[in-house]
Amino acid sequence: MRPDLDVAVIGAGIAGLATAHELRRAGLTVRVYEEQRHVGGRMHSFRHAGYTVDEGAEQISRQGYRATWELIGRLGLPREEVAPLGGRLAVWRAGRARPGLAEPSAVLTGAGLGPRARLDLARLLGLLARHGAEFDTDHPERTPLGGITLRELAGRYHPDLHDYLLQPVAGCFFGWDTARSAAAPMLSLLREVGPPSGWRTYADGMDRLARALAADLDVVTGSEVHEVVTDRDSAGVRIGGEVVTARAAVLCVPAPVAVRLHANPAPDVAAYLSACTFTPTLKVSCLLDRPLAPAAGNRPLYLLLTPDAADGTLSGIIADHVKHPARAPAGKGLLTLLADPRTVPELLTAPHREVVERLTTAARRYVPGLASTGAQSFVHTFRHGLPEATPAALGRRARFMARATGPVEYAGDWVMLRPSSEGAVRAAALAASRVLSRLRGPRPNDATDRRTTHEAA
Fold this sequence. Notes:
alpha/beta; FAD/NAD(P)-binding domain; Polyamine Oxidase, Chain A, domain 2; 8-stranded mixed beta sheet; 24% strand; globular
C-alpha cells in the first residue's frame, strides 16, 4: 500500500518546521503534526494589549548562527527585523548590578569578579584560545575538557569564577545545575556566539522565524501524536484512532518525549535518548504600566543575572522593552522574571497567583518601583525546558551520530547538545539530509502539495 506521505514530522517547534522546510524544498510531501494550537514551541510569542510576550527566551548572534542566518535569508526576512539588543547585561554582586558580563573587557573591569578571579578568567580564556578549533559546537564531545562538569571545571579556578560567571550564565541561559551539566557544550557555545554586543533579537517577537516557516508548510496544530510504529521501510503515526503512514517520520520533540513515542529504537539511539535529560523552566511575564527595569548606575539593563550566591528564587530578570522597544506599548514596560532552576520543580504545581507573588517579591530588590506599579502577569512553564547536556549524554553522542539511517530520525537542540534555536536548525538540516539520503528523492506522482496551516478537527 502506498504511504499517505513521504515524511511525517512530529513537533512544530523550530526544529520540526526547519526539517519540514528542507524536505519540502527537496520535493517531498511533508506534513507537520503539533500538539499545541500554535507553532513555535519554546520560541512561541503571544500578543496582548499591545505587548509582545516571548514565552521562551532566545536571542541570536551575528556570529555562531550560520544555519539560522541562511534560513532567514532563504525565507526573505528583512535584516532589519533582526535587531540589536538594547541595553547591557550585568550580574548582581554585593548589593548592585555589575555590567560587562561575558564581554572581553571583564578581565579588566571585573563584571562582578574580584582581582584574583579576573586572573583566572584570563587563564580560562587562554585555554579556549589555545584549543579554539577543538571547541566545536557541532562536536562538543571532542573538546580537551572531556566530560567534566561545570562545577568540576570551576574547581580549578578562584571560587568567584563559578559563583559570578559560570553558575549565573548556566542557570539563567540554560537552566543548568553546574554539578550535573558538562562544561564543554557551554564553553563551546559561548566561544562561538561571541560577546553580547553582537547579539540580536527578532523585532516582532521570537516566534517570527517559526511563523515564516509555517506559512509555506502543511501544519496540523492541535494534533497529539500518541505513537510512532516502524517497520523496515516505513513509519506509522498514530493520532487518536487514526494511523497515518509515511516513508519516514522525524521526531522533533524533546528526547524524553521521543522515548515515549518511539518505544523500540536501536540500542545506540536508546542509550543517547535516555541520557538526554531536560530541566524544566518557568518564567513570569509582568506587563507594566510604566517602563521599569534593573539598572547599572543610570543605565537600564536588558538582562540582570542573579547568581545563586545572591538569590535563591530568581536566576535573572529581562527588561523586554529595553531588549527591543516594540515589545511594549510606548510609555509602558515588560519584565520577564526567570525562576532559579532550584525552585522550578516546586513552582510547577503551585497556583499561578503564588508563583507570581514569589517571583515579583524577589524582583523588587533589583527593580526599584516594582512594588507600586500596576501589572498584569502571565506564567509560562515548560516541563521539558532545556537539554541538560550531561557528561553521560556527551559520552554517548558519538555513537548516536554515527548510527545508520532508518525510518525514524530525530531533530532538536538536544541532538546537538546546544540549547538554542541554532542547535535546532542545525539538527533539522542534519535530519533532513539523513532522510533524503535514505529516500533518494521524491516518489513518482506526488500528491498535491499542501501549504496550509490548519487546526485538527
